[in-house]
Specification:
Elements (H helix, E strand, L loop, with lengths): L5 E6 L10 E6 L7 E11 L1 H8 L15 E9 L11 E4 L12 H4 L14 E5 L3 E3 L6 H4 L2 H13 L9 E5 L3 H13 L2 E6 L2 H9 L4 E4 L6 H8 L5 E6 L3 H10 E9 L12 H6 L3 E4 L5 H14 L5 E6 L3 H10 L5 E5 L4
Parallel strand pairs: 8-9, 8-11, 9-10, 11-12, 12-13, 14-15
Antiparallel strand pairs: 1-2, 3-4, 3-6, 3-15, 4-5, 5-7
Helix pairs in contact: 4-5, 4-10, 7-8
Length: 345
């Protein structure tokens, strides 16, 4: 009798939060037709991953579920009918395993890793060949693991519809993963930025990455007025809006007539109110962003490789210390991405 091969995976097994995460044994996955098995090298954490762990009931999550959408690693096995990938290839998993191109669909929505289907915080994962993108050659596996969600969300916000043009001004809220990537992409695309944060230290760091103007929203609570002052009363061309209802009305005020708000997150919670007529009177385009397609991911990866852009990583945790990584995310003192190293390449 052949003994079944076993791997380790972190699992959400209850609504008990970070402390209730369990490192359990699972059978080694096998690829079906059109699938590959990836030996995971690293996984990065997004706010969405933390919120899923803290409140799995809100997402109707089945137990057990492996958390985390973002991972990169090396293909260790290939199923039948796989074209374009082979054993040994370094790859990143797409957040949506079933969104190749074009507008998002209901089928794509239910193919999100770490939510509707198991995530990647495991030693090995099975992924669809249509849900993979090759790792840019200059990146480490840890760096590549930061790209599937936060980076692609920022890329979609800036280049997924009408690409931001050189010389235009973008308002970035905060210095989390999406906003830091957005700053790097604005550098790449030639756009100017105004960045807000509650931390002067983080504002200094984002200026080191090329931010043009910065505003501490604690010392300047009416930061929308400061944005207008910095743009001679005109307002910014685009906002990467990660705050949600608590900041949206100020973002509306800070945006120029005919400008765009890329609505991404709800870091301020569900509370807050907006005045819809302000959107109408300024003819604003408020565009909901939910990560992006594989086509966008490939375009972004090509741009990253061409410019040799490197993600900002705050700290890398060992696989056994995953709970500490989530606690750091919860403290919200990080700058850039938090990564969990699962294995060596």
């Amino acid at each position: 009798m052949v003994e079944a091969k076993i791997m380790k995976a972190w699992e959400i097994v209850s609504a008990g939060g970070i402390d209730a995460l369990a490192l359990n044994d699972r059978p080694m996955p096998e690829p079906a037709s059109g699938q590959v098995v990836v030996k995971v090298g690293a996984s990065s954490i997004n706010y969405r991953d933390l919120s899923t762990i803290l409140d799995p009931k809100a997402r109707n999550l089945a137990y057990p579920t492996i958390p985390n959408s973002d991972g990169a690693g090396v293909i260790s096995a290939v199923g039948d009918s796989v074209d374009g990938f082979g054993e040994g290839d370094r790859v990143m998993g797409c957040f949506f395993q079933d969104w190749a191109d074009g507008p998002i669909t209901p089928a794509a929505m239910i193919s999100a890793l770490g939510g509707a289907i198991d995530g990647v915080l495991a030693e090995y994962v099975v992924l669809s060949q249509h849900g993979l993108v090759a790792v840019p050659e200059h990146l480490t596996i840890e760096e590549a693991a930061t790209l599937p969600c936060a980076a692609l969300t920022a890329w979609n916000a800036l280049a997924g519809d009408r690409r931001i043009e050189a010389g235009e001004t973008v308002l970035l809220l905060g210095t989390g993963g999406v906003s830091v990537f957005a700053q790097q992409f604005c550098n790449l695309l030639g756009a100017k930025t105004i960045v807000t944060s509650s931390s002067d230290d983080k504002l200094a760091r984002i200026r080191g990455l090329g931010a043009g103007e910065t505003i501490n929203y604690v010392s300047t609570p009416d930061w929308q007025k400061a944005v207008l002052d910095l743009t001679a009363g005109k307002g910014v061309d685009r906002v990467v809006e990660v705050g949600g209802p608590g900041t949206l009305q100020k973002s509306i005020a800070a945006t120029r007539v005919g400008g765009t708000i890329a609505l991404i997150g709800v870091l301020t919670g569900a509370g807050g109110s907006i005045v819809p007529t302000d959107i109408m009177r300024k003819s604003l385009n408020v565009r909901g962003i939910y990560v992006g397609s594989r086509r966008m991911f490939k375009d972004m990866a090509a741009a990253i490789e061409a410019k040799k852009l490197r993600p900002e990583i705050d700290e890398v945790f060992d696989f056994d210390d995953a709970k500490d990584a989530y606690r750091k995310m919860q403290d919200a003192k990080h700058f850039g991405k938090i990564v969990i190293r699962v294995s060596s390449e």
